[in-house]
Specification:
The protein is α/β, with parallel strands linked by helices. It has 14 helices and 12 strands. Bound molecules: pyridoxal-5'-phosphate (PLP). Pyridoxal-5'-phosphate binds next to helix 5.
């Protein structure tokens, strides 16, 4: 049966989070028996309940007549209007609800479908269209490109380049590596970044826009974490704060992270009308929109005081949890003074102790010994080797428990 499926699908790796979930489930009975029931710090999914307003509205709208039907693929008008208002507030830019915004079943679906719409699938690696992606970066980008029959090229994000690499340099390196720059179709950027938590400057966004204009490629800005910044953090900018960015860019937003609505699957893309239009057309052959009560509730929370307060409180909570972990790891010998914990997202990106050869070796040891579920940095790209990611999404008590388990079980940075 397997051979019936195309080469691109067959080359997919099991999504790292699913692999980790399976490993954890297999070990759970044994870990629980020794008092180390798994604490998951793997998925980027906040555990807190979504805003009460959203839950109440979904219940209310689910009981309203006409809410059960198919919906408009690009989103119902009330949601698009609410998104346009939100974008205007963020950027000062007007977005046309008919042509420049498309609702999504979560931003992941939208990014994957847009990449699929860009690439002409080719089986020969040398003929493939190229998408530039951050490395380390969200693990799905690479697989999205691969399953579309394209080729990803990692842009190294390092402390030395302050996580804002020189893009002209990237193009030169790509050519040095024997790739054809004319095959590049898009640049994906993601700030605040998963897994690093890094924020970029507005000047860097300006450079990214100019780079994409110069090379006539699409700028795909993934802003899933744009609202997750701590007090005193530099502003996380939308690409549309850059004059004229619509001629080369689209930007993806999610309700998952700021409102803890991961399972309700809703987000949006906005920007270049041709790109948004093509994505909408492709989606119309694949899905049939988002359940109306979710769209309604999402449009109610988006520009509301309750929504803004919810996000502010969530960010304060992530900051408190980060402090617990940062202090805890410092006490275990991690060089936290050199690490500069991020002021955005709910991720912490730390080096593995030098005695381990690979990140996977370390995260496997921590899981098997202490029941703490981490993600090896290598899952986020070649530049992630030697690091691991921790999602600071469990309760404060669980974060304290993580630190005390690691201490009891003898984990130290040495
Ligand atoms: C960088 C980034 N983009 C997009 C997504 C997808 O989010 P969703 O599909 O829930 O909107 C995630 C989820 O972890 C992410 O980390």
């Amino acid at each position: 049966m397997k051979e019936l499926f195309n080469d691109y699908v067959q080359s997919l790796e099991t999504y790292i989070m699913i692999q980790i979930k399976m490993d954890t489930a297999r070990l759970a009975p044994e870990l629980t028996a020794k008092g180390r029931a798994p604490i998951s710090l793997a998925m980027g999914a906040p555990v807190e309940k979504p805003p009460q307003l959203v839950t109440d509205k979904i219940i209310e709208y689910a009981q309203t007549d006409g809410m059960h039907t198919y919906t408009l693929v690009k989103g119902e008008n009330y949601l698009l209007e609410s998104i346009a208002k939100n974008m205007k507030k963020r950027t000062g830019v007007d977005f046309d609800v008919k042509s420049e915004i498309c609702a999504l079943i979560g931003s992941k679906e939208g990014i994957a479908n847009l990449i699929r719409a860009l690439i002409n699938p080719k089986s020969n690696m040398d003929d493939r269209d190229i998408v530039l992606i951050p490395d380390p970066g969200y693990a799905s980008y690479k697989e999205m490109v691969k399953v579309s029959g394209g080729r990803s090229y990692g842009i190294p994000l390092t402390p030395e380049n302050n996580y804002m690499p020189d893009l002209d340099e990237v193009m030169k390196n790509l050519e040095k590596d024997g790739l054809d720059k004319n095959k590049v179709k898009a640049l994906v950027i993601n700030y605040p970044n998963n897994p690093l938590g890094a924020i970029c400057t507005k000047e860097y966004l300006q450079k990214a826009v100019e780079f994409c204009r110069k090379h006539k490629i699409l700028l795909i800005s993934d802003a899933a974490y744009i609202d997750l910044t701590f007090e005193g953090a530099p502003k996380a900018h939308s690409v549309f704060e850059i004059e004229g960015a619509k001629d080369t860019a689209v930007e993806f937003f999610s309700f998952s992270k700021p409102y803890s609505m991961t399972g309700w699957r809703i987000g949006w893309v906005c920007g270049n009308p041709e790109a948004v239009g093509i994505l909408g057309k492709l989606k119309s052959t694949i899905d049939t929109g988002i359940y109306k009560p979710i769209q309604k509730a999402a449009s109610d929370i988006l520009n509301s005081q309750e929504g803004d307060e919810y996000i502010a409180e969530a960010n304060r909570r992530f900051e408190r949890k980060q402090k617990i972990v940062v202090d805890g790891f410092k006490a275990l010998g991690w060089p936290m003074d050199k690490i500069n914990p991020p002021k955005a997202t709910f991720y912490l990106w730390l080096p593995i102790p030098p005695k381990y050869k690979t990140a996977k070796e370390f995260t496997d040891d921590v899981l098997q010994t202490s029941g703490v579920v981490l993600v090896p940095g290598s899952g986020f790209g070649n530049n992630g080797e030697g690091w691991f990611r921790m999602s600071i999404v469990a309760s404060e008590d669980q974060m304290k428990e993580v630190v005390s388990r690691l201490k009891e079980d003898g984990f130290r940075f040495e």
